[in-house]
Write a structure and sequence with these properties.
This is RNA helicase. With about 550 residues, the chain is of the alpha/beta class. It has 2 domains: about 230 residues, 3-Layer(aba) Sandwich (Rossmann fold); about 190 residues, Rossmann fold (3-Layer(aba) Sandwich). The protein is built from 23 helices and 14 strands. Strand 13, helix 19 and strand 14 form a beta-alpha-beta unit. The structure holds adenosine-5'-triphosphate. The site of adenosine-5'-triphosphate (ATP) has 23 residues, from helix 8.
Amino acid sequence: MEAFQLLSRGGAQFSKDRFQPAFQSLKTSPSKQSTSSESHPDLPLALNFFKYAQVEQGKRKSVEKDFEVSSKKRRLDAGQEDHEEVSPPPMHRHRIKMKGLNVPSQADTFGEMKERYDIPPQLLSNLSKCGYSHPTSIQSSGMPVLFESRDLAAISPTGTGKTLSYLFPILSKLGYPLSASQDPTKKGVRALILAPTRELAHQIHNECLRLTQGRKWRIVLFSKATANSLANKAVRDKVDIIISTPLRLISSYQGGKLELNSIQHLVLDEADRLLDREFLPQVQEILGACSSSGIQKAVFSATLPAEIEKLALKILHNPIRVVIGMKDTPLPLISQSLTYVADDPSKLPSLLAYLLQPYNPPVLVFTSSQPRATSLAEELVLNGISNVDCLHAGLTRKEREDTVSRMRQGQSWVLVSTEVLARGMDFQGVREVINYDFPTSVQSYIHRIGRTGRAGREGKAVTFFTDEDGPYLKTIANVILQSGFTVPDWILKLPKPSKMKRKQMGKVKRPDVVNAVRRVGRRDAIKLRDMIKGSQCRQIRQTDLKTFAENP
Ligand SMILES: Nc1ncnc2c1ncn2[C@@H]1O[C@H](COP(=O)(O)OP(=O)(O)OP(=O)(O)O)[C@@H](O)[C@H]1O
């Protein structure tokens, strides 16, 4: 990690000679062909097409050229603040299936919702300020269910706006912040949103803040610091909404520093993850603590395997089940392909070859473990790939936050991560996802590749597979096929892996380092960093001298 931190904003040279045989063999590989067909000859200096992004003005011109597809362009004069957002293409409508007793009818426009339900004007105004003019399929069908105080199980593909589907009706039903209430008996948290990772909770919190701007809502992203201030009952009684991971919340609850009996709305985002073995005991305890009668519960995910769905339906009362598109199938907006890379040592040269061709940054690369993510990021940096970042659960909170923020600001071109970023994260500009290590399940595959192709945009997903991944290939190939892409016949003819075998998918034992040959020591890293710095300083000095000589 040391070397990576020292070098990640710089870079060294990829030795093509050292990787020559592998490099040559890759020249005809499918990954190369697909890259070049969508290539951008010049990589932009900075990428400011993210929500929440703030990028230096001078570098933006080259970006604009690359993203002419957007209908609303950023037009900036030097020094002028930019508040306009690049509008995404219109969201596609998908097939909607609704099941349950007395299913509320869909609302095709936000205007229709306004007529049917009592929505606070400020919330509607914020909705339009956020640029949401038409509801997506899950919003048209799911929002009325929540507006009509029904429980909901919603399954909708990645990037289709599930967050807004629950935030908008919940905020509307809460009506006004507790701080605006004259009634002293009205106190205590009224809505709770659970998410499996801190990053996702943070993102939901941001979205919630955007929708509530202009009023004094108290929306708390639960952390060690906020948990401490909420230990004071007078403070926590004024909180409207809490957004948290289960673990963080449960420790406060168990310590008697939080009551959940005033919760009226409870959402499990990424429900199948929250109801899996790792989180289930904590989630069950939280559900038990949310004892208010008439509480509304909703579960959301892009994937909900049958046995988890059964569990989810049990915690809901007389629910409506909504399925958008085909269950457990990624959107056809994400073009998907499989790339054969023989064995683990061949993956690094394959990825380097991929990244040395023109590619569409930012790219998200998924590995199977924290050490491998660190090792891969280091290797990319040492091989001259610019603007590489790394994110996994082993980093400090600050490091994780900084990395997400660099990604949002377009400063990261290649982000190497683990499963921690696979769910829910909305980096709108992600053009390509590379599964460096084979996913561990169909769900993992769908969520990982779902980091691209969001909000109606197109994306691309490449999955590396080795001989060891062969037995599980067919499972993923079937998903690709279902989404409307072609898969070589020989893969489809492979035997179907047994249930037992599927459980072992992606759990191949892999070394912690992606390049066993290299051992980067601290001293080497520092030497390299100083060399790069020295060369940069010399360049700057030469430019200064030249400018001075021309304009003394
Ligand atoms: N009605 C809308 N019109 C345009 N964009 C929208 C709309 N609703 C949501 N979006 C945008 O779509 C993107 C994806 O939304 P969101 O993150 O809620 O997707 P999701 O379905 O929860 O995805 P995932 O399954 O990966 O968590 C966000 O950038 C959001 O701002």
